[in-house]
Amino acid sequence: MGILKKLASQTAIYGLSSIFARFLNYLLVPLLTYSFSAQEYGVVSEFYAYSGFLSVLLLCGFETGYFRFRDKEETGRDTAYSTALIFTMLLNLVFFLGIFFADKQLAGMLNYAKHPEYVWWFGLILTLDAVASLPFARLRAEQKAFRFAGIKLVEIGVTVLSTLFFIVYCPKLYANNPPAWLGYVYDPAIGLGYVFIANLLASACKFLLLSPQLAGIVWGFNRPLFGRMLRYSAPMVVIGFAGIINEMLDRALLKYLLPFDFATNMKMLGVYSACYKLAMLMSLFIQAFRYAAEPFFFAYANKTDARDVYAKVLKFFVIFCVLIFLLVTLYIDVFQYFMGEEFRTGLHVVPVLLLANLFLGVYVNLSIWYKLTDRTGMGAWVSLGGAALTIGLNVWWIPLYGYEGSAWATLACYASMAAASYLLGRWFYPVPYPVMRILGYILLGISLYFAEEWLRPYLAWPWWLLSSGLLGEYLLTVALLEKRRPLRVKS
Fold first, then answer.
1. What CA–CA distance (Å, rounded) separates 465 from 476?
2. What is the number of H-type helices and E-type strands within the chain?
3. For residue 152, how many C-alpha atoms fall within 13 Å in the half-sphere facing its CB?
4. What is the pLDDT of residue 4?
5. CA-to-CA distance for 396 and 293, rounded, in angstroms?
6. Are the beta carbons of 289 and 357 closer than 8 angstroms?
7. Buried b (16+ CB within 10 A) or exposed e, 72-94
């Protein structure tokens, strides 16, 4: 099987499971946005914005460090895994104990003094998820994609079923002659807190399913190896932390920088967060690609044709991302029904967020230059530059343009990071990327989107016919341009 086809098949397995799982999770968006107000939904969005920052710190880059050192002959795969796992477990144990004993103080700092339980529930979710990342990394490295996907599906299934049980079934049962057993499992006063409880149950189930992988701690802790892994992985914390700033800081800042009263700010945060969900289709593909590509990039690095393969990977990655961009933007009349009517006022930022995520995916591909040359410190500076740009533009643009400013700041950040990573990669790890063709596909996608916006008022056609015609034009263009470039990269 060609190596690119193998990568595509692995991405498909991760992707199909993620897409199916997120599709079920997508169904929660209308459920939550119809069940809670925009202000209440903003509370959930705020906590999960913080989760991105904390998850990076709780993993300390050891997931990537494990991939880098697992094939080193002097250490061995088992020792690399157990060393990373033991460190991660100890770090997260300390974190959870700190959260548990300081929940009231932290809740007060976040203006949720009446609900300190939100804090420690959330802390336990983060702890379980961070420890589970290493067993998941081992499954990816061993190419056990089906087991990985199966556990992910169970996790999201528990989330969806628990959410439906606590937010839909129990309230209806409680309102109509509730049975005696209901008092043991449901308290209407918890309300929004059941969103966190559902996620906690799912994380616990996932942790139990991965428990056989946790037996790896018996392989011991290699102190010299830990030192090397820490030196390699520490800059990845900076990279990851900066990446989360770029991805989630806007939702944390909107609450404080929007020039309205607290209730209105939370409402606009809820609107923006719900619209951000529509850009998640692009994020889903990027996530699935990363699951398959990260171990692949390390494993294939010593092949003579590695750089040519990496160039082809990026080109086909962009082709598919532009397809996702067009699917969502051209059929936004359908996708809008995934959220309540109150939230649809923010739909105009969806194309901007989709493009931002496209450039994030390009950056993920281009970042191999510092991972394969062990220049993670230099990669950290690129991420820090992106984070500084995100902070500066959000502080500048949110008071002026509201959440539209956040969307454009995200696009500016990821496009700048992709450009910087490309230029540095040309110097430290040159790859013959087909830059003009890649940019051409991106510009074609943007042009077709604007064509649809411009033509729709002037044509008497049904909107879906125009959208389908423009989407077909993109697919035909790609087919004609790529028909002379078959995939012939041998494994």
1. 16
2. 23, 0
3. 28
4. 57
5. 36
6. no
7. eeebbbebbbbbbbbbbeebbee
Single out the residue of 26, 91, 5 nearest to residue 284, CA to CA: 26
Residue 196 has which token pair? 């966190």
Q: How far apart are CA 471 and CA 58, in angstroms?
A: 42
State the amino acid at position 425 in one-letter form. G
Q: How many residues comprise the chain?
A: 491
- The residue to which tokens 């992985």 are assigned: 233
| Token reading at 276 | 């951000």
**pLDDT (0 to 100) of residue 298:** 76
Contact yes or no for 265/258 (Cβ under 8 A) = yes
For the record, the structure tokens of 140 come out as: 């990816």
Give the span between the Cα atoms of 340 and 31, in whole angstroms: 9
**Of all helices (H) and strands (E), which one includes residue 155?**
helix 145-164
Task: Give me the torsion for CA of 245, 248, 253, 259, rounded to 10°.
Answer: 130
Q: DSSP H helical segments within 277-305, as ranges?
A: 280-300
Tokens of residue 137, six digits: 């990394």
Q: Which regions in the chain score pLDDT beneath 70?
A: 1-27, 29-30, 33-34, 38-39, 41-42, 49, 71-77, 216-219, 484-491
pLDDT of the residue at 487: 46
The residue behind tokens 């589970």 is 132
Maximum alpha-carbon separation in the chain: 71
- How many Å separate Cα 181 from the centre of its chain? 38
CB distance 487 to 4 below 8 Å: yes
H helix runs in 277-375, sequence order: 280-300, 306-330, 332-335, 350-366, 368-372
Contact 353, 275 (CB under 8 A): yes
The reported pLDDT for the residue numbered 27 is 62
